[in-house]
């Protein structure tokens, strides 16, 4: 493995860990601070997630800042990275997500791992995951094609904050985050039985998003 790939994998692992820690940690904090107001809990959770995404992408974009297997797979489809890099980065993202959820649980004096019992599913929420992931792919790669590449951080952070609210699934839109969230039986958790369908819909949304990116931006994308 080259030094460059090690650096990229490390950035993806650390970034995804912080993202999951923020999603789960802010969910736990929101649940404790606003125990009787689910809407306020979601607002607190979404604002923290959007803000941390902006910060992490700005900090790690010079190295690697996808934090999402779907985004990484779309990068492969668009020819921005090769297959070996894709595999290494996806593994790093999954490992980072698992590390992040453990840290979040421990920060709030919970068991390091507690399997979620929060069932999520149904046709509406599954469609929500397709829409959320499709939109995310369009925002990421559309922003990368702009004259100011730094806008991607603010575009992604803003989109995810909004998607928490306009999608029925509250926009997981990320297989690594989804897998990690099943290990926290808290506000942000997801029951393991719900995970395969969510991940499948995320992949479907990513595939549709990739097709639209190729249609809207036919010029080959540079890494």
Automatic annotation (TrEMBL):
The keyword Membrane applies. It holds the Pfam family MIP. Keywords: Membrane, Transmembrane, Transmembrane helix, Transport. It comes from the Bacteria. The keyword Ribosomal protein does not apply. InterPro entries: Aquaporin-like, Aquaporin_transptr, MIP. It is a multi-pass membrane protein. The chain crosses the membrane at residues 53-74, 86-106, 126-144, 151-173, 193-216. It is found in: Membrane. Belongs to the MIP/aquaporin (TC 1.A.8) family. This is Aquaporin. The lineage of its organism: Bacteria, Bacillati, Actinomycetota, Actinomycetes, Propionibacteriales.
